[in-house]
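Fold description:
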Amino acid sequence: MKSKILFKLKSAITGVSLLIILCICCVSSSSAKYGPPKKSIRVLIVGGGSSHDFDRWYKQADAATLGKDDFATVTYINNTDSIAFYLPQTDVLYLSNNQPIKSPEVRQAIFDFVNAGKGLIMGHAALWYNWKDWPEYNLQLVSGGTRSHDRYGSFEVTIVKNHPITKGVEPKITLKDERYHYEPDPAGPGIEVLATNSVAGSDKVYPSIFIVKNPKARIVGIALGHDAESHDNQFYKTILFNAVKWAAHR
């Protein structure tokens, strides 16, 4: 009697084990077929300063654009002293601020981040010559900068180069923004212009979207972004999405 019971128990255990093995095989086969789930890109947005509503357009609008469908996990801060704390958990640093970055440790942490090959995006106000006591920022990271802009109004932006950042956008668009007079610094690493805007009635052409020729990191400059006319525009949203993806090596 005992032997029969033991036989039935062994058979049951064997059946359960076989079922577990089959389940593991199915999961392994599925994983091999579809691959592991892709991790969202970790983006740190830094805002704060004057003349712009950073919370509304960067903390809310841009964070929503990047967070759609778990494309990115966005952290927004307006305390520049805390940048270094977040950088170890960051894939792409997105500077939009014109408030000071005073801490020498934070400044060094940003350069260390870039030298490690991470992604950097500088939006609108961060392309200004904001800090006279930190010339290395504009020289090496921005490869130039902006000291003036036209009065807020309509102008045309034209894509001038096919690139992953300009993929899927209209070749030409008219929007309202501040036309930034960005000028490259000949002493900097140089830039590759992806989109421009021209001043009517003159030969002046300014970059709207560009990449900095940094030998280690992927750096993007986006001169657009004063208010809703840019941040709620599908052209801008696609450019921002593509820029983060490219900067993160995805």
Notes: The longest helix spans residues 2-34.
